């Protein structure tokens, strides 16, 4: 897969196939999510649900494969990505933007998954249509404990693969540990969210807006990263 991603791109002379594909898909996923949000604003719950679900599954399949192959951007943070600009710009501008982008991607993936499950819980299917219901939503302590155990097991298994099979760097292991840590934090914060936003419909609408903002920022930061790497400061 690395060889395919490293082939010459089609958007910029200095771009790679992986970078061009990543950017175009970032645009596509953002447009799909924003359009799904418009459907929700119009009260078209079923169409919103189907498009969000399709977008999320497609995005997960691509981003997990792409960022796993690229060590979640760790190569860039280690200065191996091909940035050709001044060192000051690299440290003070490029790395902060890239780091922000990677954090937003992680948050976007996490909140997308969370919102799918939360949407199912907050909706009833009436005459074949999904309709948000204004009712109190609470998760059971048993489900909470089981989720945390599953996350810990997945993290441990992933660390074993990274360390003993793929022989990845400490930075790559740390990146994955941060991702699982953020997921666990979101699950833990569900208890706080339940108290702050007990109404399921209201919670879905408020967190849905936050998720849309995150994806809009992902598009902005990915555009900046792409322009700096392959248009403004390509490595010759």
Largest sheet properties: 2 strands, antiparallel
Judged by helices, strands and strand pairing, the structural class is: mainly alpha
- Order of neighbouring strands in the sheet with most strands: 1-2
Number of strands: 2
Mean pLDDT: 80
Number of domains: 2
Rg estimate, integer Å? 19 Å
What oligomerization state is this entry in? single chain
What's the shape? globular
**Percentage of residues in DSSP E strands:** under 5%
Task: Give the termini separation.
Answer: 24 Å
The unreliable regions are none
Give the H and E element order: HHHHHEEHHH
Number of helices: 8
Secondary structure: helix percent: over 70%
Key terms:
236 residues, mainly alpha, 2 strands, globular, 8 helices, 76% helix, 2 domains, two-stranded antiparallel ribbon, 3% strand
In short, what is this structure?
The protein is mostly helical. The protein has helices at 2-5, 17-41, 45-69, 74-77, 87-122, 141-165, 170-196, 200-232; strands spanning 123-126, 129-132.
Structure description:
By secondary structure, the chain is mainly alpha-helical. The protein has two domains: 167 residues; 60 residues. Strands 1-2 form a two-stranded antiparallel sheet. Helix 2 runs antiparallel to helix 8, helix 5 packs across helix 7 and helix 6 packs antiparallel against helix 7. The longest helix has 36 residues. The mean pLDDT is 80.
């Amino acid at each position: 897969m690395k060889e395919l991603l490293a082939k010459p791109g089609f958007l910029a002379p200095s771009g790679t196939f992986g970078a061009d594909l990543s950017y175009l898909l970032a645009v596509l996923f953002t447009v799909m999510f924003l359009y799904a949000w418009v459907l929700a604003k119009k009260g078209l719950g079923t169409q919103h649900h189907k498009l969000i679900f399709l977008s999320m599954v497609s995005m997960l399949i691509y981003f997990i494969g792409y960022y796993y192959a690229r060590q979640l951007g760790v190569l860039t943070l280690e200065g191996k990505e091909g940035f050709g600009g001044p060192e000051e710009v690299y440290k003070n501008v490029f790395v902060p933007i890239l780091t922000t982008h990677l954090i937003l991607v992680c948050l976007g993936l996490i909140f997308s998954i969370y919102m799918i499950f939360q949407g199912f819980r907050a909706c009833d299917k009436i005459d074949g249509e999904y309709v948000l219901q204004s009712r109190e939503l609470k998760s059971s302590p048993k489900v909470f404990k089981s989720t945390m155990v599953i996350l810990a097991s997945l993290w441990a298994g992933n660390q074993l693969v990274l360390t003993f099979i793929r022989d990845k760097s400490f930075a790559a292991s740390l990146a994955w540990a941060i991702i699982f840590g953020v997921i666990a934090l979101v699950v833990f914060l569900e208890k706080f969210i339940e108290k702050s936003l007990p109404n399921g419909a209201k919670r879905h609408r408020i967190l849905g807006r936050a998720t849309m903002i995150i994806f809009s920022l992902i598009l902005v930061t990915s555009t900046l990263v792409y322009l700096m790497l392959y248009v403004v400061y390509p490595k010759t």
